[in-house]
């Protein structure tokens, strides 16, 4: 038995399932990490992997960047591990976010993306005095009751259907799910909602929904239709914020929402998220008229990390161009490996997020999660991930997920990954054509 398997079995005796997140469970294939640095993780057996999970998109600068660790160390020396009062880093991080993120004048801090979206939805409902939220198929906004729905294809429903046992029907009564990029469906839902419509939430680029970008003009239409009906617009940028550029997806596509949620990259590896908007929208938070809180919100550790990350982003002006180049090189290299192996596969990419699909590239760009899921041979993709892992490259096995490229992935790591992909493809079993195109469900 491997050291990873032995340690995982020990962990599972007291930690349910051996994990603390449903998304990370690897049934029958345990992997326990011993250390991490830069672009690499090392498991309990001493095997090193080039890592494209990156802490689920957290580590834009790679694992354990020295400048973040230094900032945390200095702050602990000044403020300790936690204080229940404002400190100077509140203002530092708040000011930098207001300068970087379109539409954000004021923020509040949270501990996770799930908490940030929960707070954003409550804020929108409080501002409008209405209850109904519209979300989209394939868009993930956390696991809490109020948005635990619509993660996969064919999930459009009014009211929404829960994606987990234990979510009461009452929680779904105030959520509708509609197809992404479908202007007719959006207009119909908004019209039918009438004066119940509090707002609409979207990921902009659904990171767990096949990286389906908004169709040209769709975000403008979404904002116009929702605001004309008296609702507010939430962009969930927990994944895309600070990853697709300093201003996130909002700046990339040139559309400003009423409320933005942030996380992952923001915390530099610590448990930090945020939500924010204009001073007017945030007024209910400032006046303490809508409940939001948490013992660890605004922790010195997390805000020290955020201040360091935001400061580095402001200084390192070439970062996103470098990430774009590295990601493009990786996508191109993988597609060359697929072609050399005679494998009908292609890579979808948005900035430094990408995902291989085991089918030929479609003539028309898919515009919804059902269309993009039909492109993925899930059995073949997971076999590829397993073979890659055996060759020293780790990628998340969810078929509609995404690989994250970090600033630590240089030319050497990209070249090594492409070589590993060539070897993995040669070692994979012959395809089972009956499984091809197997649709992905949440």
CATH architecture level-2 label of the largest domain: 3-Layer(aba) Sandwich
- Unreliable stretches (pLDDT < 50, length at least 5) are 435-442
Rough outline: globular
In what range is the share of β-strand residues? 5-15%
Can you say what the CATH homologous superfamily of the largest domain is?
A: Type I PLP-dependent aspartate aminotransferase-like (Major domain)
Mean pLDDT: 94
CATH topology type of the largest domain: Aspartate Aminotransferase, domain 2
The CATH class of the largest domain is Alpha Beta
Question: What integer value in Å does the Rg equal?
Answer: 22 Å
The N- and C-terminal alpha carbons lie at a distance of 32 Å
Order of helices and strands: HEEEHHHEHEHEHEHEHEEHHHEEHHEEH
Query: Largest beta sheet, briefly?
Result: 7 strands, mixed
Number of E strands: 14
With strands numbered from the N-terminus, the spatial order across the biggest sheet is 4-10-9-8-7-5-6
Number of helices: 15
* Structural class assignment: alpha/beta
What proportion of the residues is helical, as a percent range? 25-40%
